[in-house]
Amino acid sequence: MSLHTQSIGSGDKLALILHGILGSGRNWSSFARALSKRCPDWQFLLVDLRAHGRSPTLSPPHTVTACAGDLRTLTRQRGQAPAAVIGHSFGGKVALAYGRDFPEGLEQVWALDSQPGAQPQGMSDSDVVQVMTALRQVPLPLERREDLMPQLSAHGLSRELALWMTTNLTRNPDGPGLVWRFDLEAATALIADYFRLDLWPVLERPPHGPHWHLLQAERSERWTQDDADRIAGLPAWSPVHHHLLPDAGHWVHVDNPQGLLELLARELG
């Protein structure tokens, strides 16, 4: 079974756009349409990663590396290798893993506010794990989307986050009501691997070929002093580029879409 995709643009060069955990490709559709107007030589393929959106869960293990392998299978099925892979958050680490494992033909790899190192504390104190814990308390199927808001608010989620989660409900294929668009157990395994995986060695000894772009949101709390030290320690000839996006928190395409658009359009050409 193949991953679900949405294609935007009709250029000859292919770029994959990868969403974060619990998201889907459609989260990036408005931004991709704007980017396509600026970059007519590119086709942007919005991918629902395994266990997300309209893609199947696929077989375990559910890991970042497995997601990169899924993309390889997808592009082989399409008969076209990507020239760029652009990922946000969890998707950013998948992009880095894809570049590590399949650098042939790649020109650019983008990790958008995706800290590349291991985060051993992530499974105990990260906001995404708190969200997943709250989601497990929601009895499914739900009769209406509106029923979700008070339940998530009772578990401490903000109104904005609870409202976003209502967009991740879909009709229950096995009966009445609404269920999640994602496989929660598989997503939990994916985020656990994301926190375990250290991809700094890839950036410190990158494969020949791609340029690697680390984008840090100015207001993001996901970066550490160790990250800053490692970025500063990269040699001048390194193909790794660090960008700071002003006026943005972690949700870069929502907080400063114009700044992100200008940067990507300039680098993609």
Give keywords.
single chain; 269 residues; alpha/beta; 7-stranded mixed beta sheet; two-stranded antiparallel ribbon; 9 strands; globular
Offer a quick outline of the entry.
The protein is of the alpha/beta class and about 270 residues long.
DSSP summary: helix tally: 12
Sheet/helix structural class: alpha/beta
Element string (H = helix, E = strand)? EEHEHEHEHHHHEEHHEHEHH
End-to-end separation in angstroms reads: 34 Å
Low-confidence stretches: none
- Assign an overall shape: globular
As a percent range, the share of helical residues equals 40-55%
The strand count comes to: 9
Tell me the strand percentage band: 15-25%
Radius of gyration (CA) equals 18 Å
Mean pLDDT: 94
Largest sheet: 7 strands, mixed
Task: Describe the overall structure.
- This protein is an alpha/beta fold.
- The protein is built from twelve helices and nine strands.
- The chain has a seven-stranded mixed beta sheet with strand order 1-3-2-4-5-8-9, with helices on both faces. A two-stranded antiparallel ribbon has the order 6-7.
- Strand 2 (13-18), helix 1 (29-38) and strand 3 form a beta-alpha-beta unit.
- The longest helix is centred in the N-terminal third of the chain and has 15 residues, at 64-78.
- The two termini are 34 Å apart.
- The model has no long low-confidence stretch (mean pLDDT 94).
